[in-house]
Automatic annotation (TrEMBL):
Domain annotation ABC transmembrane type-1: ranges: 94-291
InterPro entries (UniProt xref): BPD_transp_1_N, MetI-like, MetI-like_sf
Record keywords: Cell membrane, Membrane, Transmembrane, Transmembrane helix, Transport
Pfam family, any one: BPD_transp_1_N
Gene3D superfamilies registered for this protein in UniProt: MetI-like
PANTHER family (UniProt xref): DIPEPTIDE TRANSPORT SYSTEM PERMEASE PROTEIN DPPB-RELATED
Membrane topology: Multi-pass membrane protein
GO-annotated cellular components: plasma membrane
Keyword NAD set for record: no
Protein name, per record: ABC transporter permease
Subcellular location per the Swiss-Prot or TrEMBL entry: Cell membrane
Family: Belongs to the binding-protein-dependent transport system permease family.
Amino acid sequence: MTRFLLTRLARAALTLVFVVTIAFVILRMSGDPALTILTPDAPPEAITAFRKAWGLDQPLWVQYFEYFRAIFEGNLGRSMRDGRSAISIVAERVPLTLALTIPAFLLKLAIGIPAGIYAALHRNSWIDRAIMTVSVIGFTVPSFVLGLMLALIFAVKLGWLPSGGSETWRHAILPIATLSLVGAAVIARFTRSAMLEVLGQPYIRTASAKGVTWRDVVARHALPNAAIPTITIVGFLVGSLVAGAVVVESVFSWPGVGRLLITSVANRDLAVVQCILLLVGATMVAANLIVDLAYGWVDPRLRTASAKTGGG
């Protein structure tokens, strides 16, 4: 188990370094923050002084190693806009993003898993077809389109809910619905496919032939074996929660981390953008690590095989 865990942790660390490196290089190559923050009409002396003050006059490799050195010291940089710590700026927005993503994630599970299981157990029925039709629609419609449709129906046409802002709990309903419906559709499709594959296995027929009740066959044999592919997609959705919030928060003017990312990119506030991308990368890496550990818990054979092959 120790070797299994250490292998996964090493992979997670390497993935996070790769994510941070790619973000660092792309941000530095996409434009000069001095020209955005000071405007191109600023005196050359002011632009030169700005670049020197923020270390932008140094070679890219020097900036890169200085950035990583600062990370290991717990310093994620300061905002070029107001000089505040980037991590404090991001931390101010995290609770608002969590207020959307946590309820949305729980709703994804509460809707998607039961719907997928029910559709599989009633294959080819009208209920199965209805669930899969809704799932396909939810899977294919982009989240910003779904968000705009919900806002048009429930905010503009019916006037039941506000279309944007974060003043009351009612403002969170449409963003949460947008995030949860898309994810629930994905989970339902994968859960149904996993259940159908397991229900077609010989050991399911054997258990039924031995007189085991159908309820026990499903609960003791089908569900545990269908859990692994479902865990995979659930882990992916956990990792993409912050990334998905970027679009939804922009649509509904919700002042969370996602909206902060959009404004920081537009303002070329490098430290804040890098801090958010590091947060997103860490979330996705942590989610994948939890999925790997969940594999070993659900099916110990995977953990044993991983240990025998050196974590491969």
